[in-house]
Fold:
Amino acid sequence: MTTETTRRRDRLWNLLPEFHRIKDAEAGYPLRGLLGAIGTEFARVESDIEELWNDQFIETCRPWVIPYIAELLGVEPIYEVEGTARADVGLTTSFRRRQGTMPMLEDLAESVTGWETVVVELFRRLSWNQHLNHLDADRTTIDLKAPGPLQLLDGPFDHHEHTVDIRPPSTAVARPNLNDVAFFVHRLIADEFSRVQPRPAGPGSGEWRFFLHPTGVDIPLFHRFDDDADRDRRIDEDETHSEIQTGWLADHLADRPGASSSVIEIRAGGLVLTGDDRDESVGWLEMQCADLSAWRQPPPGKLYLDPRLGRIALAPEDRAAELDGDLEATFASGAPGPIGGRGRPRVTSEVYEILEAPVPRPDDADPEEWELLTVGVGGDHTTISDAVADWSGEDAVIRILDSRTYEESVGFVPRVGGHLVIQAADGERPFLIGDIRLVGGGEEPPIDNRMRLTVDGIHIAGHLRVTSAAAVESIDVLHCSIWPIAESEDGAQPSTDRGIELLGSVNSLFVARSSLGGIETTSATDLLTIDDSIVDGHGASAIAGEGGVRSGPVTRLARTTLLGSVFVRELHATDSIFIGPVVSRRTQTGCVRYSFVPLVGNGGTTPRTPRRYRCQPDLALADARELLERTLSDTERRTVQLSVTPQFAGLDPFALAYTTLLPDAPQEILRGASDGLEMGAWYFRQNPRRIDNLHRRLIDYLPVGLTPEIVYVN
Structure:
């Protein structure tokens, strides 16, 4: 019982004179019990009155009240997507007061979609003959000697003149016309890397080449800015979730050689070398924008930054003479959403509500009935292995307090009955370069008293492996990225190895909001459950049994994207995308609903699955047969399947838009899930509803005669 609940229950009893309370204590507190029951009901009434007061205001009302307040304002309800309905109703008066202005349309689009949006009147970009007495100096032809402005061509901040384009609107590029208004939306969210350790491109302490990403992959840098800052003007280029262009960075560094925190912040040995808080005692560092695709060594006193690849280069003598300690970098990139090991708050994630064995949330500083072991800066241990070695075998949380890189392989013998949670602190994104291995040893625990393992919020450049002699009750993988990699000077590449290998006895595996390589299990695994995740076999099987050819366990999939073949004992799937052959040994049990299951072989044969309900390409094939009133040929079947095959923005695991569907992907996939949303791992982002919200509001607020063009910037 919480302190607040106890205070409210005893409020009436505490008002009694001390004499009566002493007498009541001598009698065993009968009066306190009576007044406590009355006080509990009084507290409930009081709480209800407080809620009724809060329900008078859109900022504090309960979600079910929002449509009623909207009705009072005459506002048609929109879909609720991450607070958009509340923001839309709350800002209605402001929108109506500024109706038709470009800043208002930007605020409107952001409030109903949750995406940063730049609105441009495309007719202002059209070229026209100027009068010699009224020249506009800003309207000029393209300057081929100015690469910076050229990088903005056809984007939201393009200032070049264009000819009229009468083709239909496109989601990929703006097409200027007389009546068109472009809404440039930024679908990627900010992906913050806070004080991570850049990865050297080669061995040795004198290495001068670094990948900013701790695993050694190339990623573009994004602008860093305060999302919650009040803004009473139009959005600038450095206030959008977009890639930093080299032209903008060169101009920025010309004014500020040390760069600002909106670009990057680099530390070493406790000194801040760049950014707004730069230590002026470090006078040798001057940052320059450079192309490091072929690794160029800067002269002494310089630091090269490539924002397209996320690489930096230092002069070797500066590296050896001036830097005492590992480099740390703070910067931003982009991501489609919170899947995988990312440094975003996870305490509100609904994943923790559905776990069979509940675990402490990452912000719980003192979890009750759990042993707490801390790792990292300010923690009790310097490595994860040390914390595991100190684990007593009871229920315990090993919490990683920073976003540093841990180059180690964490191996241990499963204990009897305990539950071990290896967890990143909320808002942190630690990187493990190595494996987590559960190995056999000693007496095998009884089947009804085996340990549980939970891995939460960690980016693992290696494997999660249970060896053949180990026995575990269950493994939960939450908010993790598990990608075996092959390193090189040109950047790390995903390995063909499987991310999770359960070669021992593991009863069940649960994966949620994670991105990982393939999964291999043995016949000892009874159940595999995957929610809102990506499983990529890299050309091999995504899910399979021993050797990648035998059947895996009973598998339950919800809102998951699988790249590679799937061989399972029994299949239950909904709102999922399969890219590769699907084989379920049992076809009389299980069901596949609202999913894409491709045809098999050159002849387009039906995949071996249990009963399929409203799946693609089944529905498209049925429509084609009804239209032609005959059986389809093999070529026609493949053509129909191709017309509804998912189209992805990227299939490289390290690409920003990995497995996101293109805006021009077939509508049967974009809106083919059980409630009209998109199939696959990004279902929970509700992108179709965001666009529907925008179209619904533009009917009310867009000036008459103008045609909206929605263009996806990234």
